[in-house]
Amino acid sequence: MSKRRICILGGTGFVGRRLTARLAAAGHEVRILTRHRERHKDLLVLPTVQLIEGDVYNAALLRREFRGQDAVINLVGILNERGRDGRGFERAHVELPQRIIQGCRDCGVRRLLHMSALRASPDAPSHYLRSKARGEALVMGSEGASLNVTAFRPSVIFGQDDSFTNRFVRLLRATPLVFPLACPDARFQPVHVEDVAGAFEIALDDHRTYGQSYNLCGPDVYSLRDIVEYLAQLAGVQRRIIALGDNLSRLQARLLEFVPGKPFSLDNYRSLQLDSICDGNFPSIFDITPSRIEDVAPLYLGTPRSLRYSKYRSQGGA
Fold first, then answer.
1. 93: closest CA among 296, 290, 271, 248?
2. pLDDT, mean over the chain
3. Is 203 found in the same domain as 248?
């Protein structure tokens, strides 16, 4: 792979940090745009990484920082917005990609990689998935002679410091005796953060990925209840998982929207009405064997032990 100059938006986030480390190790010059440079100074230990403080929605900033770059990677995304009308999702997932595309065109950037979401579609039930679909459509529609684009659509991403497995473990530990679980039958195919970052890294220089969108999933399908029961066992927490029906799941979402940090929202509830699973295997073009959650989660959530994990895997597969 030739050495590149790469600008990343969302580079201080969960996936961004893994991808930045990979790109820096490969010798690429990485420029990360962030609102809070001081909070992320630890990334500067990577010798080829720059942190640029600024508002990523500022078109002038994008033009200035995109100039001279070989590629731009957009990892910006939110799982919840401050309000409830979809405007926060629209800004992050639609308006920002529009500005990134224009910035790439203005500065002659030829390569754009974009993070979308599995099951994103214009008629999806949630603001999150609909806005992700609009943003992806804009990016894919910009593919052409002057800009080569690739989009990725991962299922829920797990790994050290994630906001998925770690959040459930925290909630399990904070909830005495019983744990009321909304949407327990929602199905997921969790994908490891290193596999997602690896796909981005490989696609960067592979012309076969130009103009393509890729679904990214792990090897196994689980219900949400299966995952939470496994995490409770892994963390050594004994809780009775109470599976909530649809009405109580919706009520829980309404109530938790007003809890600081918004751990669960109506929009999250609506997203969970669609199973986050892939129709096929991890794309063979990346030559990645995706990691199982059982092989990785014990390393950061608890002590590896001989647990009978197989009962948590769905028999039907994806």
1. 271
2. 94
3. no
State pLDDT tens for residues 184-222. Answer: 999 999 999 999 999 999 999 999 999 999 999 999 999
Nearby residues of 160 by Cβ (< 8 Å), 6 or more positions away: 193, 299, 300
Residue 63's CATH number:
3.40.50.720
Distance separating alpha carbons of residues 116 and 119, to the nearest angstrom: 9
Residue 311 has pLDDT above 90, yes or no: no
Amino acid at position 104, single letter: C
- Indicate whether 148 and 52 sit together in one domain: yes
| Burial state string for 13-26 with b = 16 or more CB within 10 A and e = fewer than 16 | bbbbbbbbbbbbeb
The pTM (predicted TM-score) of the whole model is 0.94
* HEC secondary structure over 150-218: EEEEECCEECCCCCCHHHHHHHHHHCCCEEEECCCCCEECCEEHHHHHHHHHHHHCCHHHCCEEEEECC
Identify the domain containing residue 50 by its residue range: 5-155+192-216
Beta strand 71-74 with 49-53 is unpaired
How many beta carbons lie within 10 A of that of residue 158, not counting itself?
A: 24
What is the average pLDDT across 73-88?
Answer: 95
Under a CB-based contact definition with an 8 Å cutoff, are residues 71 and 111 in contact?
yes
